[in-house]
Amino acid sequence: MAKLEKGTPQVGLRFRNPDEAWKFWVEYGGRTGFDVRKRYANVSSYDGMVTSCRFVCSNEGHRRKGQTNNVRKCFRAETRTDCKARISLVVRGVENYEVTNVVLEHNHFLHLPETRHLMASQRYVLTLHSRTFYMMLSFIPKLIGCSFINRNERKMMVYNIQRKWRMMVTT
């Protein structure tokens, strides 16, 4: 099967399952400097297995018409540039997925090596950090429920906990 450490996607590359292919695509996007997302996955109604799927650059396509016509209070910049970078997988036999289509050209700027860790697909939370975060969250209802703490102090406590959490995740 495919080596997950290094390499570029190419037609004929084989994976044991779609999750292995997804990890490969996320790692390739992180090395190259683009964010990734899943476009679709066709699932068999017979046995529930994924028969084909496509992974794309996060700038692929355009927003739906209904989402762009509304005037919103908070403006969001248009990030989709109809980028064509993608890989397509098709099942070939039992637990054997093959890459059938590869497009690696982007029509937008890629992230610099110094900022690649900030992309959404490249952020990871260690199990230790997530446990600490949930432990900290368990104390918030006790703090907020106290009658002797006013509203501004409660907001500051929640803000400080969130700030500490962000600092833990980035280190």
Low-confidence segments: none
- Secondary structure: helix percent: 25-40%
The H/E string reads EHEEHEEHH
In round numbers, the mean pLDDT is: 79
Which structural class do the helices and strands define? alpha+beta
Strand portion: 15-25%
How many helices does DSSP assign?
4
Report, as a whole number of angstroms, the end-to-end distance. Answer: 34 Å
Query: Biggest sheet, in brief?
Result: 5 strands, antiparallel
Question: Order of strands across the biggest sheet?
Answer: 1-5-4-3-2
In one word, what is the shape? Answer: globular
Report the strand count: 5
Radius of gyration: 21 Å
Detailed description of the structure:
With 171 residues, the protein is of the alpha+beta class. The chain has a five-stranded antiparallel β-sheet with strand order 1-5-4-3-2, covered by helices on one side. It is globular and about 60 Å long. It starts with 13 loop residues before the first strand and ends with a helix.
Brief rundown of the structure:
The chain has 171 residues and is an alpha+beta fold. Helix content is 34%, strand content 18%.
